[in-house]
Amino acid sequence: MKKAIANKMQNIADYFATKEQSEQMQQTVASYIDFLSCCKTERETIAYLIEHLEKHRQTSSKDTIFYKQWREKSLFIAKKGKRPLSEGLHLIASHADSPRLDWKQNPFIENDSLLQVKTHYYGGIRKYQWLSRPMALHGVAVKENGEQVRLCIGEKDMDPVFTISDLLPHLAQKEAGKTLQTAFEGEKLNIIFGHAPDIKNKEEEHPIKRAVLRLLKEYYGLEAEDFYSAEIQMVPAGRARYVGLDRKLIGGYGQDDKICVFTSFKAFLESAEEPEYTSCLIFWDKEEIGSNGSTGAQSRFMEYCIQEIAEQWEPEAKVRDIFLNTKALSADVSAPIEPDWEELHDANNAAYMGCGPVFCKFTGSRGKYDANDAHPEYIAWLRHVLNSQQIPWQMAELGKVDCGGGGTVALYLAAYGMDTIDLGPAIMSMHSPFELSSVYDIYTTKEAYRAFLNAK
Ligand code: MN
Ligand code: MN
What we know:
By secondary structure, the chain is α+β, with helices and mostly antiparallel strands. The protein contains 12 helices and 19 strands. The relative contact order is 0.18.
């Protein structure tokens, strides 16, 4: 480890040196593991947040919290501050959707004594990572009469799981010569779903499909046509776990961006009951596929919510003043330099695991295309907010120039004129079924968001 990084790690160790700080960190991480284990889809995440927000409201002395959800996939929360709304908000935006495999609407195919489910991947995945591993089924199906059936199979110990079969090495000779891009085909991401034939009506076609449809009817009251009006998502099965002998890393699915959902929400609950500026959180959906749709960051949902708080709390406020004076954090994850891929990063401008939340002045790719490039005046103000409370932070780019790149919701916030920058922890194996985060980053990110919400 280079001296500069060793020093950074030492600073972090010092930050957690007191018993109180280290105990608080352990508690935060334990509740994060539970959150991550039970919130694998955007709907599950939004339901969790509303449930915990309601509990919080019951315990607080004043009721100054507004919230509104949309389609069970997006949520806006606000806490009234001391200053007028026209002086702006302190807003943190994150996204609750993560890459996964969605069921096709006509899902079942039966071949070679097996029933499979066809999928269409959602978000950017490296397809080979999703093969030969236990998967769980999460989602909703809506019947013609409007009844919603919630599904979650594969998370309890006694539940069955599902999987995609991979080719054995013995027959992979031709396959091995292909490039990564051509070797794994989207149409081959088919989930093994059933095996037993229907013993009634032996002459009819598709005996396994008929038997499985009978089970779906018996267990969940679902008919084949109900899958046309369903959103079913295959995600890695099982709980998030500690990683490493010293238990200072967390492995689990969906940390992009549920690590920011969790830390910003916790920061909001822990922040002042009456902050200086009105505090807002927005949780969006569809970030992984371009922030489109009625629940994504390009929708009008946040704008309508801000109009609504203005109407309720300060009808004379001009909504354009609220937007123009707002300070925002695009809370999303960054990618750290890591030992096996150092060549893809500029070590002087890279994020390091465990060294605090990462500011990313601009995302995008190539010549900063599709980026919000944060204003230096705003970065200076944020430095002061974090430094004055000794909260560690880093400034980094996602990889070397021209190695790739990525986007966040920052540019959609900036479109309103608000000051915006990306700030979130670095995670390893991003978009894989088992992403890694550092416990140090979980806690310091939460503290950074809290300082931002409380800032004067
Ligand atoms: Mn993200
Ligand atoms: Mn992502």
